[in-house]
Design a protein that fits this description.
Length: about 500
């Protein structure tokens, strides 16, 4: 170690005797000349501090923090803390980045044993004294392994959820069987409905007509009960329920639906190899095989003007909705000559549910879609719609709907995701009148973060999605809004063990 005085006596420098770390410590003094007395006291203080510096250097060396044995170790270790000097951490980080980049494209050694947990990784590194490159390979191998496991778990989750959503719960199946048995054995259950004196009401346009298309008796009961209980004038309500094969006289819909069914239930369904797809695409393919999306009942809504030729205005409801407010004001809304009064789904507080534009439903890489549609056009919701049937009969909505269904079949169903909404978005293009979003709240069947206060305020809440409230996969905190309208004291409900 050497002690240097500058010629001007303005600084004192302490340095090591080798060439590694030259300036260990530099002490600046005042700009003017200092007295020998001041210099004496300075040297005295340094003489007192230097033994401690040597002791710290010895401790660093003995503890093996670094392999070096010179005085340079002290500078590299204590410099950042005591002397304000930089260390080698930046260089080490850069070196590790280089190793990671090298390992990213290299093959993982076949004989490399991957730890099962972070604790095991630390233990292996400690016991085997692995170098940085081996550590990087282990880290990459573990992450790829965990990604594969997560991916497989996601596919399994989607498959299980698909089966749960597609199946009929045994309680509802029991209810259907018991009601069928009652109908066949009890003459009173087969009496004509409605009674003859009420038949004129079915075509009376001063009455509020609701149309419900469903094959779920329990869900239908909730829709009807919630509508009646929420109405200020329930005596003015008529429900038209479309449910059995008597309504299947629409041959064009049957023909198109058979084509879709054959495509998705043939032996050439893509996506069987999970390595060629991702969870989102896989979920979409599963959805297309769901009975809900290949049910003819979904397509029959396009025939409402023909099915109800004497009606002028109706409100269409899906069977997975709950009515929480009097809907009679819907008949007072002026649709301004439009056919379909619906809530738009491209704006709203819930950015996940209410952010749907045409790009979310259509494949704009298809030339026909790109030519005729705008990806930024706002979508709207099916499930609670006001239909002006007089205006509808003056349009070619139905013909447009089926012509696009045929084009999609010719294109191997590559133009849009399966369902009735995409072709309806095209068919009703230019015929939709937006209504206030408070009339129809969506997403209760797939959005677990639904705002409860918003649910309470909505006129109609819609459990669109897989997590229906009558299924075990339904969201527990959203189910009570539906179950409150189930009559659990009913003998059929109780005997089939439909539990609240």
């Amino acid at each position: 170690m050497q002690l240097h005085f500058s010629p001007s006596m303005r600084s004192i420098t302490i340095s090591s005797s080798n060439n590694g770390f030259i300036d260990l410590m530099k002490i600046k003094v005042a700009a003017r000349h200092i007295s020998y007395r001041t210099l004496f006291h300075t040297i005295l203080i340094l003489a007192f501090l230097l033994p401690f510096v040597f002791i710290l250097t010895a401790l660093v060396t003995l503890e093996g923090v670094n392999k070096c044995s010179s005085f340079d170790c002290l500078g590299r270790r204590l410099g950042p803390r005591l002397l304000g000097r930089g260390d080698d951490s930046g260089r080490l980080v850069r070196d590790f980045y280089n190793i990671l980049n090298e390992v990213k494209t290299a093959e993982i050694p076949a004989d490399l044993k991957l730890p099962d947990s972070f604790d095991q990784l630390v233990s292996d590194m400690k016991n085997n004294q692995c170098d940085a490159k081996t550590f990087a390979f282990m880290l990459r191998g573990m992450m790829e392994k965990f990604e594969r496991e997560i991916r497989e778990s996601k596919f399994a989750e989607l498959m299980n959820k698909h089966f749960a959503a597609s199946s009929v719960p045994k309680e509802i199946h029991c209810l259907s069987l018991r009601l069928t048995d009652e109908y066949s054995s009890n003459a009173h259950a087969r009496k004509q409905l409605p009674s003859p004196e009420l038949l004129p009401l079915l075509s009376d346009n001063s009455i509020h007509h609701f149309i419900l298309s469903t094959d779920n008796i329990l869900a239908a009961s909730v829709v009807v009960t919630s509508t009646v209980q929420s109405s200020l004038k329930p005596e003015k309500i008529v429900f038209h329920v479309i449910t059995d094969k008597k309504t299947y006289a629409v041959l064009e819909a049957v023909e198109n639906q058979n084509g879709i069914r054959n495509y998705y239930h043939g032996n050439h369904v893509a996506g069987a190899n999970l390595s060629d797809t991702n969870p989102r695409k896989f979920a979409s393919k599963l959805q297309t095989r769901s009975p809900k999306y290949i049910s003819l009942l979904n397509h029959l809504r396009i025939y409402i003007p023909e099915l109800f030729p004497n009606l002028d205005k109706v409100v269409f409801l899906d069977d997975d909705v709950v009515i929480q407010r009097d809907l009679s004001p819907l008949w007072e809304i002026d649709l301004e000559g439009k056919v379909n009064g619906a809530v738009e789904t491209c704006r709203g507080e819930d950015e996940w549910v209410m952010s749907k534009r045409f790009r979310n439903y259509f494949n704009f890489s298809h030339p026909l879609i790109a030519k005729h549609l705008d990806p930024d056009e706002c979508a709207w919701a099916y499930g609670m719609n006001i239909f002006d049937l007089r205006a509808w009969r003056r349009t070619n909505v139905r013909e447009t709907y089926h012509s696009w269904l045929r084009e999609n079949l010719k294109s191997n169903l590559t133009m849009w995701k399966l369902g009735t909404l995409p072709p309806a978005l095209i068919a009703f293009k230019g015929h939709v009148h937006p209504i206030d979003p408070s009339w129809h709240m969506l997403g209760l069947g797939y959005q677990s973060n639904t705002n409860i206060e918003s649910v309470k305020k909505a006129a109609v809440i819609h459990y669109n999605g897989q997590s229906k409230p009558w299924l075990q996969i339904g969201f527990e905190h959203l189910r009570p809004f539906w179950t409150k309208y189930v009559n659990y004291s009913n003998d059929f409900v109780r005997n089939c063990h439909i539990l609240e």
